[in-house]
């Protein structure tokens, strides 16, 4: 067993909760899509990579995603500067990269649903969902985690901090979903390829 195997197993319940939380946010109608984008922006605004392997590249990728989210929200007439969750968390870049890049790999299904939407304005707000998934980066993250022991304080910290990332996303999605109860476009978030 490697750290990647343990991450997949130990964070599965948290991952499932995030999927369930995002299932109330749709991508084919404006209200749901605005909530989906806002949930991602709020979560990404609360996260920063701590110094460590790949931190600078991950920080740049996250800044790009936040910029794309703001542009999409502005395109939809929403306030692109959503308030961040209380307190910013600096987390191990391996934990953060695992969750973020895993979810990027899983966005293909949502991208197809969004592209099929009949609303032209909604389709113009596609910077975030059109972000390339970066399979080489995901592969490097997985390879690095596969070389690490699943035991010990470093492994325990990476697992705990990946759980924190999932929890922040879950909280953000649930906060955005509350006003949408009964929204007809509740699409299930595509599972990440962990």
From TrEMBL:
Domain of life the protein comes from: Bacteria
Database matches in InterPro entries: Haem_Oase-like_multi-hlx
Record-given protein name: Biliverdin-producing heme oxygenase
Organism, as annotated: Jannaschia ovalis
């Amino acid at each position: 067993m490697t750290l990647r195997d343990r991450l997949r197993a130990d964070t599965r319940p948290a991952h499932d909760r995030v999927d369930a939380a995002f299932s109330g946010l749709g991508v084919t109608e404006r209200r749901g899509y605005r909530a989906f984008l806002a949930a991602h922006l709020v979560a990404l605004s609360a996260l920063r990579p701590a110094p460590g392997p790949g931190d600078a590249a991950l920080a740049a990728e996250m800044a790009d995603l936040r910029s794309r989210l703001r542009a999409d929200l502005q395109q939809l007439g929403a306030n692109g500067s959503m308030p961040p969750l209380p307190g910013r968390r600096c987390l191990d870049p391996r934990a953060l990269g695992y969750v973020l890049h895993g979810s990027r790999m899983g966005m293909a299904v949502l991208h197809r649903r969004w592209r099929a939407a009949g609303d032209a304005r909604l389709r113009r707000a596609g910077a975030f969902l059109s972000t390339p998934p970066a399979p080489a980066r995901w592969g490097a993250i997985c390879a690095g985690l596969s070389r690490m022991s699943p035991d010990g304080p470093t492994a325990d910290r990476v697992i705990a901090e990946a759980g924190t990332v999932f929890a922040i996303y879950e909280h953000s999605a649930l906060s955005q979903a509350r006003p949408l109860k009964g929204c007809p476009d509740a699409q299930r978030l595509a599972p990440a390829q962990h």
